[in-house]
Amino acid sequence: MASSLTCAGIVWAFLSFLCAAASCVGFFMPYWLLGSQLEKSVSFGTFRRCSYPVRDESLQMTVMVEQCGRYASFQAIPSAEWRICTVVTGLGCGLLLLVALTALMGCCVSELISRTVGRVAGGIQFLGGKCSCGEGMGM
């Protein structure tokens, strides 16, 4: 297999893939914030939540659902800020994955990544990193 990357480029490709995978796992896991509510351990992230309260109309009280899952709809995410964070972080993860997978393909396909493509990919990766960290929107 011929590669269009230098040794530094190959290291960049593999580190990019590891960072993109870690970013995506962090995005999908509901352990951003941990706490307790109604004497139960709860956790949530922008995309998922674990052990959350719901109103049981038959009992006329709030009960804890002790399971993990996605929010029922985009509007079910607790606030507008969390919705924005979900979109921006998801966009950042997508950009990081795009660059990482392109770089990994560059390890196997000759002349896929030129100097210009590498610089553009680096810029896209920087933007994806900023979005994933929340700093891209001043968060």
TrEMBL record:
Keywords: Membrane, Signal, Transmembrane, Transmembrane helix. The keyword Ligase does not apply. One of its GO terms (cellular component) is membrane. The keyword Transmembrane applies. It is found in: Membrane. It is a multi-pass membrane protein. This is LHPL6 protein. It comes from Emberiza fucata.
